[in-house]
Amino acid sequence: MKKLYNNTLMQLILALCTFSFVACQEFDIDSQPEGPLNIQIDALESYTALATSPSNVVFNISSNTPWTIESDQQWCKPTPSMSAASSLVSEIVVTMENNTGKKARTAKLTIKAEGVEGTKVVTIEQASKEDLVVVPYDELVPTEGGSITFTIASNKAWEIIPSTAFLSNIDKTSGTGNEDAIAETVTVTLPANAGAKRAGTLTVKTEFEEYTFTITQNGVIIELEEDPESTTISMPGTGSGMEKTVLIRANKEWKVEVPKEYQSWLKAEALSETELKVTTTTTNNLMVNRVGHIIMKTKEVIDGFDGITFDISQGTAFWKEGGADNYVVDEETGYMTLYGSGIVTNYLFKKGRLAFDFESINLTGEDWIEFNMWPNSGNTNFHLHFYANKESNFTCGGSGLNWTQKTFTWTSEQTNVVKKIEFLVVNKEEGSNALVLKLIIDGVEVAVLDNNITDPYATEPGAPVYFRMHTTNKASNFTVKSITWEPVELSLIHI
User: Fold this and answer.
1) pLDDT, tens digit, for every residue of 167-180?
2) Parallel, antiparallel or unpaired: strands 243-250 and 403-410
3) CA-to-CA distance for 108 and 119, rounded, in angstroms?
C-alpha cells in the first residue's frame, strides 16, 4: 500500500513539472515578435487631381504593427485613417472635395507605423477651378469700321479663334492666364464695310472651356425712319388705308422692287430719297393676314449686297361673329372652318362678282349655310339659304323690290361636293339701268333674278357681305378658302 502511494505521488510531481515547463515556454514565445517591425505602402510619391469631381486616390498598406495616416487639409480625407485591431492590412481610399477656388492646392498625407522609424509622405496636388470669364463687345460696329475691345479673365492659358477674315486683326490671339484671373483687354480692328451688314464670331478657348460671341458690323443702311429695327410694314385688309407712305433712312441712293409673285396685289415706289409708297391693290381674301415682300436695293451695284427685304403684312378683310369655339383658322393656309359662327366683310359689295371658294362642305340634317348681303342703306340686300335634301332659296328683299325668289332642291351628294358659289350682279343689258342677279355654283347658272329693277348702286354705297353656318352640332361644317369680289368691269369678262 505504501509503495502504491509513493508511485502515485511521484507521477503527480512529474506531471506538475511538465505543465510548468510548457507554460513557461509558451509565455516566452508570445512576448517576442514574429519578425522585425515593418510597413509596406504601394502609394506613389504624389498624385494629381481635377478641380471638379476628382477621382479617388487608392493605395494599400501592409504592416505587422499598428499605423496611422493623417491629412493636413480638411478637403482631402483618407479612409481608414488607422489600422484596425483585427487587421493590419488595408486599402486606403483618399477622397477630395471640389476645388471652387481659382488657385491650385496641395494636401500631404503622413503615414506612421508604431515601432518603425521615419514616416511616409504622399502629396495630393489638386488643380484650380477652370475659370473663364469673357465680357464681349455687344454694340453694332459702324459701317466705317474702327477698333473695338473686350476682356478675358482666365486662370488658364487661352486662345482666340475668329470665324471670318474681317475679324482677324486682333492685337493678341493668346494668353497664359493668371491664378487670380485678372482681366486682360483684347483689341480687334475692323475695316470699313462697303457691302451688306455682316456678322462673325470670336471664340475664346481654354483646355476645358470656350466662350463664343458675335460681332455685327453695319454696312449699307436702308431702314425705316420710325422703327429702324423693324422690317415689316403693316397694311389694312381693305378700305382707304390700302396706300401708305413711310420714311426711309439710308446712306446710299436706293430703289425698290416687288418680286413677281406679289405684283398681283402689291405695288411699291420711291417718291423721293426719303419716302417710300406702298400700295396693296386688292383686298385680302384670306381669313388671316397675308404677307408679301419688297426688296430695297442700292442704285449702284455693291459686291455682296443683294438688298434688304421688307415684309408687307396685309390684314384680313373680315371680322368674325360668334364664339371662338365655333370656328377654326388654319394659320398656314388661311382657310377657316365654321361650325356655328359667321363672318362679315369690312368692304361693301357693289355690282360685280362675289365668289366664295370652299375646301369642303358638309351639311347634315336641317343645317344650312346663309349668304346675306346686308343693306347699308336702301334695299339692296340679296341672300341665299343653302340646304341639303331640302328646298334652297335665292332671293332679294327690300321694300318695293320683292324680287321673286327662285328655289331649288339638291341632295346631300350634290351639295357636299360644291367648291365654288358665285353671285353675279350686273346691268341686264348694255345701256340698261336694270339689274340682273345670277347664282352660279361650280360654273353652272342655277338661279336668276330678273325683274327689271333699277340699279340701286347708282345712289347707294353697297352692302357688307355676311355668311354663316346654321347648325345645332359640329357634324355640319364648311371650310372656306377665300372670298373674292370683282368690280363689274372685270366680272363681265367671265360672263
Assistant:
1) 999 999 999 988 77
2) unpaired
3) 12
Beta strands 308-314 and 232-235 are: parallel
Whether 317 has a pLDDT exceeding 50, the answer reads yes
Closest listed residue to residue 108, CA positions, set 135, 126, 128, 129: 126
Dihedral angle sign, alpha carbons of residues 426, 429, 430, 433: negative
From CA 447, how far away is CA 487, in angstroms rounded? 21
Which amino acid type is present at position 365?
G
**Distance (Å, rounded) from C-alpha 260 to C-alpha 264?**
8
Backbone phi, psi, residue 313, to 5° = -100, 115
Residue pLDDT, tens place only, 340-374: 778 887 777 778 888 999 999 999 888 899 888 76
Cβ contacts of 186 within 8 Å, gap of 6 or more = 149, 150, 151, 152, 160, 170, 171, 172
pTM of the model: 0.55
> What torsion do the CA atoms of 317, 322, 325, 330 make, to the nearest 10 degrees?
-10
> Of 135, 227, 131, which is closest to residue 185 (Cα–Cα)?
135
Domains and CATH numbers, the chain: 39-126 (2.60.40.10), 132-217 (2.60.40.10), 223-314 (2.60.40.10), 319-494 (2.60.120.200)
